[in-house]
């Protein structure tokens, strides 16, 4: 892992191979949306 950023309800992880975003939705944050974007080098 290179960097990790935590916002109020979101989390972004930057690794040497991909960017991973976690987005909590709803009032309780039960539903989590994941997005993984590969990084081409």
From TrEMBL:
A Pfam family reported for this protein in Swiss-Prot or TrEMBL: bPH_1
The Bacterial Pleckstrin homology domain, residue ranges: 2-40
SUPFAM superfamilies: PH domain-like
Regions crossing the membrane: none
Protein name as catalogued: Bacterial Pleckstrin homology domain-containing protein
Organism, scientific name: Glaciecola punicea ACAM 611
